[in-house]
């Protein structure tokens, strides 16, 4: 397949390159903002699991249109290195460490954030139960650090994999936020189980002390959501963002979207910096990947003789069995 094949199969991938976004996921946050007005009145924003930086780009363009004069502060956090973005402070750190939360607050000069977003996801295995569990743990880690850095009344947006235990996650989020909705942007493929939880009105329980050491899914602050069974269980509000006028993320489009313009291939806006697979690509390119040694003639003859003895033993056993039955 040529370079343009993915441009045909994924319209948002193509549009992201044309509009200068680092990844197609930028459209997901833009469409969520259209529905929920996430950026209204935001002066301090945090992007967790930010690499390669498409959501940080959206925050920068929407919250800091005049970069020189804007007082809005944006902090991006990720374990991986990320190419610099205008108006974005980068922290290469672990969201499960309390030191990372302190560093975020330090960049905000001791003030909490108005908005925390997280588009982090694990490397999927294809085993849905495992993927859903790991994603749930990542979401809870993001929620944990959010309780350290978000102001009362603030907003939290994070990716979630919709599975059989989504109600448990919803009940946990409902403890900390007044309004919790599960939304699926138009740019998210229908074939994907991903969605996004939009949590508005941060209001932690009285007496709650943020602590990275304690798991959130204990029952200390449970308000009887998890004890409900059958039809009485909480039904998670779900909203599909966008309408039929938007592009369909699962449809293949012609390369010539605009008849007045000729299609031209555009490379990705920002290649990954030190991705985990960099070493494997280098080894494959230079034909250095480990290979099984070819079998030697001696080994082949030894294996053949062993198989022959095994077959003879099976045949002898069969004859003995037949004799015993006939007798």
UniProtKB/TrEMBL annotation:
**Reactions mediated catalytically:** cytidine(32)/guanosine(34) in tRNA + 2 S-adenosyl-L-methionine = 2'-O-methylcytidine(32)/2'-O-methylguanosine(34) in tRNA + 2 S-adenosyl-L-homocysteine + 2 H(+)
Per UniProt, subcellular location reads as:
Cytoplasm; Nucleus
Catalytic positions are 159
The enzyme's first-digit EC class, named in words, is transferase
Binding locations of S-adenosyl-L-methionine: 53, 55, 78, 94, 119
Q: Which UniProt keywords apply?
A: Cytoplasm, Methyltransferase, S-adenosyl-L-methionine, Transferase, tRNA processing
Extract the GO molecular function terms from the UniProt entry: tRNA (guanosine(34)-2'-O)-methyltransferase activity
Query: A Pfam family in this protein?
Result: FtsJ
* Domain spans labelled Ribosomal RNA methyltransferase FtsJ: 21-202
Q: Out of the domains of life, which is the source?
A: Eukaryota
Query: An example Gene Ontology cellular component term from the record?
Result: nucleus
Q: What does the record list as GO biological process?
A: cytoplasmic translation; tRNA nucleoside ribose methylation
- Region annotation (Disordered) maps to 289-327
The record's section on PANTHER family has: RIBOSOMAL RNA METHYLTRANSFERASE (PTHR10920), TRNA (CYTIDINE(32)_GUANOSINE(34)-2'-O)-METHYLTRANSFERASE-RELATED (PTHR10920:SF12)
HAMAP family, per database record: RNA_methyltr_E (MF_01547), RNA_methyltr_E_TRM7 (MF_03162)
- Assembly and partners? Interacts with WDR6; the interaction is direct, and required for 2'-O-methylation of position 34 in substrate tRNAs.
UniProt similarity note? Belongs to the class I-like SAM-binding methyltransferase superfamily. RNA methyltransferase RlmE family. TRM7 subfamily.
Job of this protein: Methylates the 2'-O-ribose of nucleotides at positions 32 and 34 of the tRNA anticodon loop of substrate tRNAs.
Q: What is this protein called?
A: Putative tRNA (cytidine(32)/guanosine(34)-2'-O)-methyltransferase
